[in-house]
Amino acid sequence: MGILDKLKDLAGFGARAEKQLGQRLPKTPEGYTINIRLPIMPYRERPKGEIIERYPIYDPWAMVSIILSESTNEYVYFIDETPLSEEEIKIYRRVIDFLLWEVGELKEGEDPKDFIVREAKRAIDLFRTRAKRTYNVSWDKILYYIEREVKGFGPINVLMLDPNLEDISCNGVGLPIYVYHRKYESMPTNIIFQNEEDLSSFVIKLAHMAGKHISVAFPVLDASLPGGHRLVATFAKEVSQKGSAFAIRKFREDPLTVVDMIGLGTISPELAAYLWFLIEHKKTFLIMGVTGSGKTTLLNAILNLVRPNYKIVTIEDTPEIRLPTKNWVQLVSRPSYAAGESKAGEITLYDLVKISLRYRPDVIVVGEVRGSEAYVLFQAIATGHGGATTIHAESIDAAIKRLTSPPMNIPESYIPLINSALMIERVPVRGKDGATRISRRVTRIWEIDKNATPIIIGKWSPSKDTHLLTLDKSPMLNSIAESLEISISEVLDEIRMRASFMRWLYYNNIRNYIDIASAIYKYYRSPKEIMSLVEADLGHVSENTWN
Ligand SMILES: Nc1ncnc2c1ncn2[C@@H]1O[C@H](COP(=O)(O)OP(=O)(O)OP(=O)(O)O)[C@@H](O)[C@H]1O
Ligand SMILES: [Mg+2]
After folding, report:
1. 292 alpha carbon, distance to own chain's centre
2. Quick check: 36 pLDDT over 60?
3. Relative to the alpha carbon of 293, which ligand is closest?
4. Which of 25, 359, 403, 418 has the smallest CB count inside 10 Å?
């Protein structure tokens, strides 16, 4: 691919921008008609209402205000980006023009985006030094917009840079983009794609950024953007009535760990300890919940606790799981781009689960089960591998029903292979200040008995905001105790000890996944030593919450 193609791809300078600008632009030596698109800007009109919070995203050019709208009584995410002045627009166009015409050589191995930004800086410097008059412009602002278009995510760049946002979704033309904010939950923004052309070319740009392709022939895409953000997109009116659409689940630089989950109250130290004990004994667990409830995050957090010498194989459609261990094989499926029925080159989750056994895993993890891969996963866990997965379901009964119906078709006799099942939900939680906020909680924990009947062994209490576990009644812990020829109370002591250890990690702010891994490693190497440290620090070992 030539540098011009790369530029067009990266910056999404589509063939129609020319029309928009109403002028013919010169042809390059390679014969391309170059078009210079102006940045798509957020709406400038601020909704009436109280500004609840205001913070910079890219000082001083991009600020965000959270406004409680008077007319709708909902929060609005208002982006305040200083627009380019007319003179700045002229220079912006000339810099882009320069980039397309006079761009230098891309060095071997150099990131094309960094390269373009560097070239833009060079262009701006040239422009400034050679200018015959003084310009009343901000060079810095011009560079901000060039970076935003070339290296960043164009009109949604502010959303991508804001660490408070979890999800970004655009449901079609003429509709505001919605975001999910950690503090204010779902709300509209002042970014609206005005026409299908703008939106479709932006969706194409996103697809290119993910190294993928989207078109009328291949109108759906599930891919991973630079930075690990998960992209789902549909093209034009092929599959979605309102035209192209996309949703981005943002990847956290710093993933939520098991210690964070304890800090947030999603799980308790005792529950973490129980799950830790369970994976150590190569048992299996299933995380259930609706879209965006936090299933994948919880799965990843629990995997922080896997014994360091265990081999983990993960199988996903888009790579979301991140583990500190080196003993980890990460398999990712690949769609087919062949036309028609052939599906040539496609590698499915099913193929990957089958192949995963060759790696001799101690724990097999499937990011989410949806189809025939579930059956192979169950076969694998039936032969003594530890396993974990998530499923989209709003209750345990719905999960079992989904597993045992097409296309998963798990025989009912396999259902007891799920040793433990957890339900995660977004629920209102009353804080110490009396205010109610939506938080994520594991609300119920079941084990599945021999007859495929779920037995509840733990639940979250909304009034106390605590998890109550009745682990002494756990069929699984009883069977582990039996196989180890120890009593159930010894097992419970071990779990209690680990719960103290988890609590200790939390109080000492050992929350980064690499630090947790090294602490777990120490726990396995010299448990007595580390536990005497824990006891000395905490002054006591965990209170007993299950008998
Ligand atoms: N316990 C939690 N506390 C706070 N934020 C969380 C928690 N769990 C997940 N999140 C955030 O919520 C968002 C959605 O989480 P996640 O991807 O795990 O959901 P999911 O249930 O797997 O969604 P999907 O159904 O789309 O796969 C992420 O941005 C994540 O950072
Ligand atoms: Mg998920």
Report:
1. 9
2. no
3. 1
4. 359
Nearest CA to ligand 1 atom 7: 294
pLDDT tens, position by position, 240-278:
788 899 999 999 878 899 999 999 999 999 999 999 999
DSSP states along 5-46: HHHHHHHT--TTHHHHHTSPPPBPTTSPBP--PPPPPPP-PP
Rounded to the nearest 10°, the torsion over CA 527, 533, 537, 538 is 20
What is the rounded CA–CA span in Å between residue 150 and residue 133? 28
Dist. CA 539–CA 531, nearest whole Å? 11
Which range has the worst mean pLDDT, 135-144, 301-310, 448-457, 485-494? 135-144
Sheet with 312-316: strands ordered across:
328-332, 312-316, 363-366, 386-392, 284-289, 420-430, 436-448, 454-461, 466-469
**Atom of ligand 1 at shortest distance to CA of 368?**
27
The finding on whether 207 has its CB within 6 A of some atom of ligand 1 is: no
How far is the C-alpha of 402 from the C-alpha of 191, rounded, in Å? 38
Q: What is the CATH number of domain 3-249?
A: 3.30.450.380
Q: 429: Cβ below 6 Å to ligand 1?
A: no
425 is written with which tokens?
A: 């939900």
Per-residue pLDDT, averaged over 424-430, amounts to: 95
How far does residue 295's CA lie from ligand 2's centre (Å)? 5
Of the listed ligands, the closest to the CA of 295 is 1
pLDDT in tens, 293-341: 999 999 999 999 999 899 999 999 988 999 888 899 999 998 776 656 6
pLDDT single digits (tens) 84-95: 999 999 888 888
| Residue spans of beta strands (DSSP E) within 345-462 | 363-366, 386-392, 420-430, 436-448, 454-461
Q: What pLDDT sits at residue 101? A: 66
Distance from residue 27's CA to the centre of ligand 2 (Å)? 46
What CATH number should be reported for the domain whose range is 258-538? 3.40.50.300
Question: Of 163, 179, 172, which Cα lies nearest the Cα of 227?
Answer: 163
Atom of ligand 1 nearest to the CA of 390: 22
d(CA 402, CA 413): 15
292 sits in which H/E element? none
**Domain residues of the chain, as ranges?**
3-249, 258-538
What is the number of the ligand closest to the CA of 248? 1
- Confidence (pLDDT) at 100: 67
Name the token pair of 236: 């034009």
Q: For 153, how many CA atoms within 13 A lie in the half-sphere containing its CB?
A: 20
Reference 374, options 401, 404, 345; nearest CA is 404
Query: Which residues keep their CB under 5 angstroms from ion ligand 2?
Result: 295-296
Contact predicate 37/84, CB 8 Å: no
Asked if residue 285 lies in contact with residue 421, where contact means CB atoms within 8 angstroms, the answer is: yes
520 φ, ψ to 5°? -65, -40
Report which residue type is found at 540: H
